[in-house]
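#struct-help
A.M.: can someone run this one for me? Single chain, 421 residues.
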Amino acid sequence: MNADRYLFTSESVSMGHPDKVADQISDTVLDHCLKADPLSRVACETLVTTDLVVVAGEVTTKADLSNKVVEELIRGTIREIGYVDPNIGFAADTCKIQSHLHTQSGDIAMGVDQGGAGDQGMMFGFACDETKTLMPLPIFLAHRLVEKHAQMRQSGELKFVRPDAKSQVTVEYNADGTPHRIHTIVLSTQHDDSVVTKKNGKDYFSDDARKVLLDKLVLPTLKAERADLLKGKIVIVQPGTPADSIDDDAIRIHLNPTGCFLVGGPHGDSGLTGRKIIVDTYGGRGRHGGGAFSGKDPTKVDRSAAYMCRYIAKNIVAAKLAGQCEVQLSYAIGYPDPLNVWVNTNGTSMEGLSDEHLITLIRKHFKLTPRGIIETLDLRKPIYKETARNGHFGRELATFTWERTDKAEALKREARVAAHV
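D.P.: on it. Structure tokens below:
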């Protein structure tokens, strides 16, 4: 690799990954509550493991949360994800379900009822001009791979794959931060025994199946998004191959690099709500305040303010005021106004426009109280289960309000005045 270039990696996980199963269940409960009662207060956590789902948390709502209703919601979500075969250790119709939901603390509710934040904390948002969705390229491509994996599994095009999967994308960047090429792809997918062969007495994912994944899933996805970055010979890396034996200019493709992935899903690894917060956001490219999203109603600024930060950052980049933008908001529990607004454009802002100018524009054009965020982004609707798979940001096919760029023109007009352009 050229000494002036560098590598950056992000990962994604499929809708059938145990942690994402938990996220989707938590957000299914949230959506159920908001559909019946838009003022619901929800903090729902989920644990999934072999033949077991446990939901717990604090909920204040007019919605029916009887054990029967909760059980139906959970089984429906698991079935939609694709876990329907009891023989793999976790299935919609046979798993045990335990519900331990109770009323939200009155101490928290007292501050929130007055329009204050549902918790303290700091939230970040990020946008950059690397992709059409203004997301960093590695996480954007990683999401598209697991999204395509799910589509092909559900359509029957890839009959041997099961719901659990992970992707990882490494992009080689030029010194100026522009993408030079796709460097490495990792895709691990649970599979059935129809594609298992024996090598030295051990189960092994077949080379033929690897070729199918490459030709039908990986390459079409990459070519559809960034064919211009497929520079170099494409090499399927066999498990155990030393890294120094691969040509430096090759595009490395690791497909089930452990050798076999028969046991997976919640049977192979327990899952918990909120364990994939970097997958949910920017793949490590932007900072993260630490708070998870799924299972939380919009009075929890962990979620709603993170969405607002993305909305702000995306509109700034869409207005071409900066090539990249990171925004931070912070709050105190029960207090409505943000404690701070911070912006960093990493030297990419329009000439004559400082980050301090951008902060002034943000305060003028965006409502930053929890109530203002909820109203601006229309967050009291049952929209959240869809966020719990394939990322909360940069989704072209999802109509998330925080992905709009409706403020870009107004920001551009005022920024030109501030910059004396």
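A.M.: thanks! The chain is about 30% helix and 25% strand.
D.P.: also worth noting: The radius of gyration is 23 Å.
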